[in-house]
C-alpha cells in the first residue's frame, strides 16, 4: 500500500489550515437576533376620595383633588395665600391650582357640593407618581372661607384600607369678612368673587366663623343658617387598585 504523502507545499498547507480555521470558527452572525428587552409595565394605582359637606347652609364650590410631590403644600397657616388659593377662596375658581407646576394630576368635582351631600372623585396615578394629594373647596356663602386637605401622603396605602379625616374651615386672609351685599358669590348674595385687592390680614388662618345680621352686623346678608362649626368637611380616601 502506497503511503500517504503529508508533505504538502507550504502555500497549499496555508490554504488548508486557513480554510479549516474558518470552518471551525465560522461566524454565527446569520443566526444572531438582537433582542430588545420589553419595557417594564407601568403599574397604576387608583384612589377613591369621597367628600361630604358637613355644614347646614354653606354650599361648597366644585372640589379640586390634586396629586403632587411630597414636599409641596397648597397653603401654609400664618403665611400669605398664593394667588391660586386666593382665587379659589374668594370665587371658587380652581384653574390656577390645577396649573401649578408642582401638580402632576388633578380632577374636579362635577358641581356644587351642597350641604349634607357627598361626592366621590377618582384619581389614577402611575405608581412612580404616588406621593401626596391635596384638596380644596370654597364655602361660597362667605367672603373667603375654604377647606380641604393640604399635602396628605397616600404613598404605601394598602388596597381597601380607608383613611378618614375631618377638616376645618380656613380664612384665606385676602378679603375682609364684611358679609356685605355684593361681596359674597354664593346664593346668599350672588355678589363678586375674586378681587385682586387684598384688604384683610393677608395670611391664612383658622376661620372665626360668620357673624350674620342677627348678631348685630347690620350690613350682613347672611342669616343664622349660614353659620358653621368645625369640622366642615369629611373626607374618606381609599386605594381601590
Description:
It contains three helices and ten strands. The chain has helices at residues 10-24, 83-91, 95-98; strands at 44-53, 64-68, 103-108, 118-126, 132-138, 145-153, 163-167, 169-171, 205-206, 233-239. Residues 1-9 and 11-26 have low confidence and may be disordered. A six-stranded antiparallel β-sheet has the order 3-2-5-6-8-9, covered by helices on one side. A four-stranded antiparallel β-sheet has the order 4-1-10-7, with no helix packed on it. The termini are far apart. Strand 5 and strand 6 (145-153) form a beta hairpin. It has one domain: Sandwich (Immunoglobulin-like). It is elongated, with a radius of gyration of 34 Å. The longest helix is centred in the N-terminal third of the chain and has 15 residues, at 10-24. With 241 residues, it is α+β, with helices and mostly antiparallel strands.
Overview in brief:
The protein is α+β, with helices and mostly antiparallel strands and 241 residues long. It has helices at residues 10-24, 83-91, 95-98, and strands at 44-53, 64-68, 103-108, 118-126, 132-138, 145-153, 163-167, 169-171, 205-206, 233-239. Strands 3-2-5-6-8-9 form a 6-stranded antiparallel sheet, with helices on one face. A 4-stranded antiparallel sheet has the order 4-1-10-7, with no helix packed on it.
Amino acid at each position: 500500500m502506497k503511503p500517504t504523502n503529508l508533505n504538502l507545499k507550504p502555500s497549499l498547507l496555508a490554504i488548508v489550515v486557513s480554510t479549516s480555521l474558518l470552518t471551525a470558527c465560522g461566524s454565527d452572525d446569520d443566526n444572531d437576533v438582537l433582542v430588545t428587552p420589553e419595557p417594564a409595565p407601568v403599574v397604576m394605582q387608583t384612589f377613591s376620595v369621597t367628600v361630604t359637606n358637613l355644614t347646614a347652609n354653606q354650599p361648597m364650590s366644585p372640589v379640586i383633588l390634586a396629586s403632587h410631590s411630597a414636599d409641596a403644600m397648597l397653603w401654609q397657616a400664618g403665611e400669605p395665600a398664593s394667588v391660586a388659593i386666593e382665587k379659589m377662596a374668594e370665587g371658587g375658581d380652581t384653574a390656577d391650582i390645577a396649573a401649578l407646576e408642582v401638580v402632576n394630576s388633578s380632577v374636579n368635582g362635577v358641581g356644587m357640593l351642597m350641604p349634607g351631600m357627598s361626592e366621590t372623585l377618582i384619581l389614577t396615578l402611575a405608581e412612580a407618581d404616588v406621593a401626596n394629594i391635596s384638596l380644596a373647596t370654597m364655602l361660597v356663602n362667605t367672603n373667603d372661607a375654604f377647606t380641604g386637605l393640604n399635602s396628605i401622603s397616600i404613598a404605601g396605602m394598602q388596597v381597601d384600607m380607608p383613611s378618614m379625616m375631618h377638616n376645618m374651615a380656613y380664612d384665606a386672609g385676602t378679603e375682609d369678612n364684611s358679609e356685605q351685599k355684593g361681596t359674597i358669590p354664593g346664593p346668599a348674595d350672588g355678589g363678586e368673587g375674586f378681587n385682586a385687592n387684598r384688604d384683610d390680614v393677608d395670611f391664612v388662618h383658622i376661620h372665626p366663623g360668620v357673624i350674620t345680621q342677627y348678631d348685630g352686623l347690620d350690613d350682613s346678608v347672611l342669616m343664622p343658617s349660614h353659620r358653621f362649626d368645625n369640622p366642615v368637611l369629611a373626607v374618606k380616601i381609599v386605594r381601590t387598585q
